[in-house]
Structures are given as C-alpha cells and as structure tokens.
Amino acid sequence: MAINKRKKQTKSSAETNENTSANTSSEKSDDSARPDTSNLSWPKLDTLPVIDDPALHARCIPVLETLKEQELGLGEFVWAINWGNEASRTNKLMQTARKDFRGEYLIPTLHNVRIPPRTKAKGDRAEGAKESIDAFALSLVGNQFREEMRGFERHYEGLKPETLTEDNFMDSIGFNRIQSLVYTWCPTLFMMLYMLSTCYYRRERWESNGSNADFFITMIICCMAYQLSSYNNAMQRLLGYYFHAKHVPKAVIGLLAKMNLSMSYSSITSTLANLSKSILQAMREAVAKFPVIFVHDNIRIKQAVRSQRHNNQTVTDNGTAMTVIIMPESARPAWEDPEAVRALRNHIEAQRALGRPLRVTFSDLQHPNRQARVLTHKLFHLFDILCAIPGFKDIKILSSSLLQRPSGFHELKEFITRQFMLGTRPFDESSYVGSIMVIQDFLRQVGLDYGDPLVRLTLERIIPWIGDELTVRRLEMLQWQRQEESNGYDRLDPFIFIFGWFHTLMCLASSMFENHRGTKAGVGFAHSVLVLGRIGFSMNMRQQRPDYHTVKEFLMHEFEARVRGLWLWATGTTTLDELKTWIEDPDRTVEDIITVGKRIQRERVSRQAVSLYEMEMDDSPEDADPVFLSTLIQTRDMELFWDLRHAVKHGLVGHMEDLIPELLMFFTGGRNGNYAKQMYRILQVLKHESTDAIRHSIREHCWLVNMMGKKNTLYPIDQRQEINNKGIRVSSKLVS
Q1: Pairing between strand 463-467 and 704-706?
Q2: Tell me, what's the pLDDT at 381?
Q3: What is the pLDDT of residues 271-294, one digit of tens each?
Q4: What does the pLDDT average to over 690-696?
Q5: What is each CA distance from 393 to 253, 385, 389, in whole angstroms?
Q6: What whole-number distance in Å separates Cα of residue 730 and Cα of residue 736?
C-alpha cells in the first residue's frame, strides 16, 4: 500500500487554461520517441592522465604566489571567475578563462579533486572531496529525476471509479499511452533504470529476439508515481480490477498493494460495488430512453464437491442468463409507434377471431425476384474461392470489379453493439412456470415492472425477444395461452419472439452432416472424415452431438475443396498451376471467367444442377449415376451453409431473409420439424405480422451484433448470449 501520499492540488478550468497558455513553450508532445538505449553503458567520462612535468610545476608556483600576495585563495579565485562575482561577468579575459576551464580540464579536475590519484610516493593518499562532490552529484541527479516525475505526474492522470462506466475509458489508460508519457517526461530516469536493471549480455539477447525491459521499467515508474500520490493510480486500479476478476485471493492482492502494483482490496471491492450500481442505473436509464432487445438462455453451472459429506455431491444447476441490447435512437420509430402498433395488433386479432389467421403463402416461398437475388449472390462465392487460392491473389484479372460481389438490398453498416448483462437467476426456463418467472424477473431488473414504465411498455412499446428454439417455443406458447386475458401485459402483447440465427447455423450444420454421413467405404462425409483424419465426430450425432465448430470447419473445408476441383473441371486443367496459367493467358477476359463460373453453378453447384441431372436420369435410366447425384446434393447443401455463414459474418441481413424459404425447405426435408416451424414463424412475422418499419428494424438490429465495429466481425445475437454464458460459467468455476 502506498504510504506518505500527497494529494494533487485540484485546479479550476480557468487556472488550468491560464497555466497552459503561460507554459506552452515548456510543454512536450506525448508522442515522444523512445530514449535511445542501443549503445547504453555506464558513463565513461573523459579524463587526463597524471603527468610529472617540472616545467609546468615551475609555471604554477608564481601564479600561486601572486594569489597569495593578492590575499586570494584558489577556490575563491575559481568561484569568482565562474560567475560568482557579478563584476567579472563581462570582462573579456574572464570570459576566456571560463571557456577554457569548462573545456578540456573541467571533468579531469573534478575526478582528481574527488579522489586524488595514487602516485609512487609512500604514505597516505591525499585527502579528496569525495563526500561533498558525491552529495552534490546525488542532489543534482535527484532534482533531475524529481522534475521528470513532476512532469510525468501532471500528465499521468488518475483513474476515477466513475470513469469505468464510460464507453471509451480504456483509450485514456492504454499501456502504450502510459509508456509514451514515460518516454516523453522521464527520459533520463528511464535510461538510468534501464542501465541499473540490465546488463550487456541481457541487452544483447533482447536485441536478437526483439525483447526489451520497457514494460518492467514503465511499471517501476508508475509505482513510483503511485507512491508519490494515490491519485496516480491508473495502472494500479486497472490491475486491481483484473486481479479481482481473476479471483486472486485477498491476501495476495494485499501483498500486491504493498508493492504498489494494485489498489487495496477494500478499495477494489467498494469501487466495483459502486460500479455495479452505476451500471445498473445506466442500464435502466438506457432501457427507458432507447428501444431495446431482450435475450436470455438456459445455463448449466457445475458446482464442484467441496467436502466428503454425503449430502454435498457434485451437482449441475440449471439457471437463466439474461442480456439487454440497446438499439440506437434511429430504431425508435419502428418499436415505439403506438398508432401503427395498435392497428397491426387489431388486424391480427381480428383475423384470428374470424378463423383466418395470416399465413405464409406460396408466393412468399417462391418469389422470382428473391430466387434471382439468391442465385446471383451465390455465384460470387465461386469467384471468392478462386481468388482465395494461394498464389492467385496477385493475378490482375481476378481483381476486376466484375468479379466483386455487388451490394445487396440490405447490408449492415459498421457499428458497435451496446449490451448489459443482467443477474443470473435460478429459473429453469425450459418449463412454462420458469419462463413466466424469467419474464417477471427480467422486467424487474430493467425497471419495467411497475408504474408508468409498465403502462408505457404495454401501450406504446414493442420489445423483440431473442432466444434458441426451446426458449422461443415456450414464450410463444405462453403468449398463445394468454390471448384471453383482459390486458395487454398479461397477454404478453409487447413482445415479439425471434429465433436466433446461431442455433439455425448449428442445426443446419448438424443436420447436413447427418443427412450426408454415409459409410466409411462410401462417398459420404464419413469417408472424408476417415481419409482426412478428422477427429471429434461420433457415430450417431443425434445421440452425441459434436462441437459445432468441428462440423463447421469440416463443411467449409469440404465445400472449398470441391469448388477448387470444379474450377479445374470447368477449365479442362488438372492442377492449380495449370489453372493459374489458364487464367493468366493474355487472351483471357473477365467474361470468360464469369462464363465458366456460371457453368459451374448451373451444372454442379445449385438446385438447378440437381434437377437437371434428375431429369437426365429419368430420360436415360441405364446411364444413371446415383453416386454422382448424391455428390451434387451434398455440394448444393454445403453451399447453403457456406452462403448463410458468409451472410452472417458480413452483415448481409437482406440475403439472410432471402435464405429463409430455402432453410424452411431444408429443415422440413431433413426431419428437423421444430426448426422448420421457427423458419416458418420468422417468415410469417416478417411478411404478415409486422409493419415495414419493424420488418426493417428486425433485420437491422435483431439478428446480428458487432462487438468490434469492423465489417466482417458480426455474429448472431444468440451466439453473444452463449459467449456471455461461457464467461458466467468460467467465473463460477473460479469461485467454486
């Protein structure tokens, strides 16, 4: 724990501006370069060898006699010449003497005066001035270091607890920025610590492997700043929160605090408690101010055995983890339009009362414009795989804009999702009772369970609720069972339940692999798993489902390999080198490549290819090849998975909507009835049970999240909940 702390003087903004304008010339840039330590060693000051020159001695004696006659000591004489006497400042002779003294003889003289050199003469060494010169040097260096630390303190601001609630607080305490401040304001101290903490051998080793001691030295200076004032606490507070998050024992944190590497345990816990309250308040304010999305999922937490009592066994508890996602202000017209929402609800209820509920029609499934968009979009996957072949990226013709995928009718722009994790509750949401408890507790935690917020929720707002198949099915059934209730809240009118796309991808991959598993000796996926030595696949995936990422990688690699082979087939080549030569032909045009791609799609990678070959089999049964037909079907299905995953990753939500009819048919044919119902339900909501604004906002905000703000870092909302669940399980495991 830091001791002997001194508080920084808090200045008003006016004083700060005044001082800033007055001291502009003394300010330094925070982007200073690192002090040069490439040839750093202990300073070797130049000195002169001791000589034995009688002639020089004879010339010095008269000077000393003259000084004695003038009643002037040598020390007073040197002091007066070197600016000790104002009357001697402008004299030309004095100036020449000062310049000569500061030149060649200053440092050697200090060396000799500090420790007189030994001679061949016997007897004790002559008395020097080591103590006084060392004290002066120490004072000089200490003042230099203290001035550097003062400059560092002025710019190394402390981290206040309320700063943690700001979205960009990490930008102000990044290690690179702190290290830059050290380089800027403590260059001499940095080099001195570098010399003291390293040696030539270690520096030579670091230069060979690109390492250095900068992190260690920066931490030392941060610890020194914290020792000077507890307000200089950015690194200590951040590390303290990290240690607490990793469940470092209290005693260890106390030891680290005494070493100035962390805040005290009590400070950390009290700050985090206040932080939790402030985040809860910020969450409730955001829920009241902006349109929101609710997400929850079942979570299983394993509680390890802590002793050998018969009633204390290892158990796995079921609970519910909940998350709130804040939509931007631009989404408000879609979700908080009372008149439009009321008219839509009345229309839906009237249709249900007449026994003619709104249903998905054939035109919703087989719309020609949708089919044309999907077919065109899928064609560019073939070009993407061709351009991604190693050695093909530098081929000029492949960079043509004609081979780049055009924009779809609805693509997400770059954004960063804002989320709040709620408290985990011991509710089993797989039951109807548990689902009711989840809804009630969810509204209580976000502050929508009483008073005006509850009335406004019931009459003016609609909240999309995201979950997996079981979650959505339970909530929709509750909503259906409560349609005879007297008020909108009891009927669950404010909620639209939406199935998550991550579980769509999981079911699609699992069902696809199981449908085309085949045998190890056949042409199915089981044969490829055996040949390629893939691991992680069970004999029956319906009983023991493998990891989703294992199946995903297999399907992605298998489809990419098949498309490469189809490019060889379509161009009449046998190797990738021959294919590269074919593309680089001077007479080759972009239109030639597009024509080949369309042929591959038409004859090998599409529903059309399967239909055409089935027609050929009917016309010529004797030439039928069931193995080839099975290969076409496998490639067609894998393209669907590739296409959906690409759309999810890049935020092509319009194309995701276009794929819903194909997913509906796939799940229906693959005997995945529950997931087929969810696809039907999504299609029904988009086509018949939502306004145009809600339909657009569902695609824009309710399907994907982006936690990094980049173009290709999107993933489904229910996958975000699974990631949150993982963090909860890891934290619970560390605690237990």
Answers
A1: unpaired
A2: 95
A3: 888 888 888 998 999 999 999 999
A4: 90
A5: 52, 11, 7
A6: 10
Token pair listed for 657:
């909507």
Which residues pair with residue 173 across a beta bridge? Answer: none
pLDDT at 310: 54
Please state whether the predicted TM-score (pTM) of the whole model is above 0.85. Answer: no
Question: Average pLDDT for residues 329-343, to the nearest whole number?
Answer: 85
Integer Rg of the chain from CA? 38
> Of 324, 237, 259, which Cα lies nearest the Cα of 285?
324
Pair 424, 430: CB distance under 8 Å: no
CB 338 within 8 A of CB 459: yes
pLDDT in tens, 136-148: 989 999 999 999 9
Distance CA(321)–CA(429), nearest Å, equals: 10
DSSP lists the bridge partners of residue 716 as 704
Q: Six-digit token pair at 5?
A: 């702390």
Distances (CA, A) of 539 to 305, 507, 526, 558: 33, 17, 9, 19
Q: Which amino acid is at 608?
A: Q
- Residue 672, C-beta contacts closer than 8 angstroms, at least 6 positions apart: 507, 511
Q: Which one-letter amino acid corresponds to residue 5? A: K
3-class secondary structure, 297: strand
- Per-residue DSSP letters for 433-466? HHHHHHHHHHHHHHT-SSHHHHHHHHHH--EEEE
Pairing of strands 704-706, 292-303: unpaired
pLDDT digits (tens, 9 = 90+) for 370-385: 899 999 999 999 999 9
327 Rama sector, left if φ>0, alpha if ψ -120 to 50, beta otherwise: beta
Distance of alpha carbon 411 from alpha carbon 703, whole angstroms = 12
Instruction: Please name the helix (run of DSSP H) or strand (run of DSSP E) that holds residue 723, with its range, or none.
Output: helix 717-735
Distance between CA atoms of residues 506 and 385, nearest Å: 23
Tell me the residue ranges of DSSP E strands in 311-442: 315-326, 418-421
How many residues are listed for the chain in this entry? 736
Give the integer Cα–Cα distance in Å for 266 and 715: 39
Answer whether 115's CB lies under 8 Å from 128's CB.
yes
C-alpha 645: how far from its chain's center?
21
With beta carbons less than 8 A apart as the criterion, state whether 648 and 656 touch: yes
- Average pLDDT on 54-75 reads 90
Alpha-carbon span 203 to 189, nearest angstrom: 18
CA distance 555 to 642: 8
Here the tokens at position 648 are 């999810």
Q: Which helix (DSSP H) or strand (DSSP E) does residue 557 occupy? A: helix 548-571
pLDDT digits (tens, 9 = 90+) for 502-533: 999 999 999 999 888 888 888 888 888 888 88
Sequential DSSP letters for 664-681: HHHHHHTT-HHHHHHHHH
Residues 431-466: pLDDT tens digits? 999 999 999 999 999 999 999 999 999 888 899 999
Place of tokens 């010169």: 133
Confidence of residue 172 (pLDDT cuts 50, 70, 90): low
Residue 129 confidence class, pLDDT cut points 50, 70, 90:
confident
Q: Identify the pLDDT of residue 376.
A: 92
| Mean pLDDT, the chain, whole residue set | 85
What is the C-alpha separation between 682 and 334, in angstroms, rounded?
A: 17
The tokens describing 231, both together, are 């307000």
